[in-house]
Fold these 2 entries.
Entry 1:
Amino acid sequence: MTQRIIIDTDPGIDDAMAILFAFRSPELEVMGLTSIFGNVSAELGARNALTLCQLAGTQVTVAQGATAPLGMPPRPHSDYVHGTDGFGNIDWPQAEGVIDPRSAAEYIVESVNAYPGEVTLIPLGPLTNLALALDLDPSIASKVKEVVLMGGAVHETGNVSPVAEANIINDPHAADRVFGADWPVTMIGLDVTHQVLLKTAVMERIEAANPVQGGFLNQAAQHYFDFYRGALGVDGCYFHDAATIAYVLDPSLFGCRHGRIRVATEGLALGQTMMAPEGREFPTDGWADRPLIKVAFEVDDVRVLRLFEQRLSEAL
Ligand code: BDR
Ligand code: CA
């Protein structure tokens, strides 16, 4: 049986990699894409999602989500990483298509209620839409199959501040709400995504094998590669959003530990994901009443990259 998934996304170059990876995986049924501000605005995110559907040769529900975080003013979009178009400034023609009249949160609530126990939510941006969905209908917490999110950093250095990862710092209040809800969350954060380097040569091979989708991704990725080359001196990019899809396809690629997560919602540590490991007790308030979630710390980078390359390259 295929797994039903909803991808909540701010596309975004690595979001595009994740979404095409998912569309090309027969084990997954992508029910819909919901947009969120982050790499781009929520409006542009929804239009980019339509473009990705067109590239994948399919049409699923695309719903627009929140335009700003819950408890603070929005931070600027990260166009220096993803380009002002979210796709590396490649001037790709925007697809026609209809954006669903429901908000992302409404769409998530309706979909989870329609298929209780079956839907996996995969947020690849700030967690605002998920927090709003929980507010709209708290019962969805007991009805989702799993929430597999890209975000956070426990032991690894952050990528927006020394302690904060981009998706979490963009809405720390929403993230604290999502980590505090009683639903099965798996966090795929920088602790693992910084162990997987997608090299430029792999994207070239994918383009050669799959000129349309691979060509789009490789063109878009050039901006991303430039950013990583300049910022960190690496030949490629870290494998953030697409790592969630690899996890959903094959959790054995990752090693996880359980812990309780709080998110710093103010001060210098804004956006830090702070984990109390399972079994440890602290004479400090704040964590004890939090649910245990799964946090990925180990990853088989070779197998993850092989799976991504295979899925993006094979003839369908
Ligand atoms: C995350 O931040 C965004 O810029 C990427 O798309 C990814 O979701 C990595 O920190
Ligand atoms: Ca993203």
Entry 2:
Amino acid sequence: MLAIIGGSGLSKLSSLAVERREVVRTPFGEPSGALLFGHVCDQPTVFLARHGYGHTVPPHKVNYRANIWALREAGAKSVLSVASVGGIRADLVPGSLVVPHQIIDYTWDRQNSFFDGGDTPVVHVDFTEPYDADLRQRILRAGAQAGEALFDGSIYAATQGPRLETAAEINRYERDGADIVGMTGMPEAVLARELELPYAALAMVVNFAAGRGESRNGVHLQNMTQTAQGIIARVHNVLQHMCLDC
Ligand code: HPA
């Protein structure tokens, strides 16, 4: 079963015919909301809204451990994250859809491991390639079949939020090599890795990052929402081509 975690702009999955809804608890607390079960492109799918169904859970308060744990317990075999980002690289303009291949983690003070002491032995996971190669290819193939242009590869800077960045921070992230910036990519990706769940992301660029392009003098939040609304139909189009035999 495929799990889809929907971010800002995707708290409903119109591509999912919901058949069952389940409220679950985990040893790490409650996930952001109920799990919605159904089918996307004829394959069993479970959906979770990362920020809750009323969009009330901010990025630094998301219970990432409960979310990933709940999806694994529900039977998910892989996790596709849909997330909004700002574009740092000049060609990643608002409206672009990106399948990132690397992450730089600037977040802090988040519960970023299932192995955090107690009686369990210390576990280190390999995270050289944070995104699953096969799942990335599946998303890219779905994009091609859906006729949606997807950027293959980019470096995702995960920031703490909930505030947006300063222009100097964006310049620093660019010097570090980052192409896009978002607030939820970590620790979600590493928690999936700890549970051996293949994980990849489809990032929607909803604004120029702070200090860039139209955001030169500030990021216009209204434009972000509008861009997200415009792009969401294309995301659904891609998801509807994520068939097992695609
Ligand atoms: N920065 C961080 N997170 C974001 C942005 C941004 O510019 N846009 C959407 N999510």
